[in-house]
Amino acid sequence: MSASRLVYICDWLPPDFGAVGQYSVLFAREMARDRGLHVTLVGLTSGEATSSIERFERGTLEIVKVPVPAYDKARTSARIRWTITTNTKLLRAALPFIRKAQSVLFTGSPPLFLHWIAPLNVLLRKRLIYRITDFHPECAIAERGSPSLFLKLVLTLTLFWRRRVHTFEVLGHDQAMRLNEIGVTKDRIVLKRDPSPIEIGPGTPPLARPPQTDGKFLLLYSGNWGIAHDTATFVSAYIEHHKTGSGTVLLWLNAIGKGAATVAEALDEAKAPYIRTDLVPLDQLASLLRTPDAHLITLKNAFVGYVLPSKVYACVDSDLPVMFIGPTESDVHLLCDARKSSAYFHVDVGDSDRCAQLLEDFAANHNASSAKKLRLVRSSV
Q: Taxonomically, which superkingdom (predicted)?
């Protein structure tokens, strides 16, 4: 066994979409290049099984991709079967590397992998580091509103195995709070935020704006709009903005997930205009995030501390205004409010009136700015 070997386990690796996998590649490469570790990153792919090695001055990074099929997230039975099969395949693929390593770092995605690695570690006795990107089964309980008997049993077993993890890496103070609530002491918790997966700033060139957006204030929701993200507050305000307000703000939906489908269906039914585009490749993401007039982030109250929308880092770095619909206890609010270089607007979940007023404020400021630019152009002719 080598003290310089670490196995890193996550879910979807690039080019498949998944924020956890994108950050895992960055962190694994950093540990191999800067700390001289021999890191084996094991994750999922929708393609063929592959293995590749990057060599640095002292360390190495081996990336092992395990092929698994997609599944229907809307069906609970399909999610359970996929989780069991996928976690088993991941563990089998990682086991030869785990035997040679001193430490195993695993993430909260795919769900409940803790229940595979922790029991095995009773025998292997490796140092377990849990980068708790998402809390499971707490997210499933939050989605339901109350736990079923099955979820109660899973939660009890989850808490049992969490007590056998050596170190937790958390994305924010809100996650540390959740761990404190279940008895994890502060000395076992390390705050390690996700950086923006891309370099972005005022000098990043934007993409061309979508057609038919002239004169509109373009509000972008990008990435995953899933079960943890509030939809009702924005949808209600946005429909009102287009029915009785100026209608100047135009939603740009560059997103996937259950929430994205819910928003699109509601806006279609209300005949409220919006733009929907496919997710852009990672090498175009920085330019995409510099293209709109502002960004939209949402989070349901029940999910605070259980998930942290990773898009917040790049949205803040874009130096564009951000509207966050969610609880102030979330680190999304902390991160956005701490950056004074760009405008930040907070809305409590359920406060559609304030959200609608902000949309009108965006529109008024946009129209005033456009009129000023027009006067400047006319005066220079």
A: Bacteria
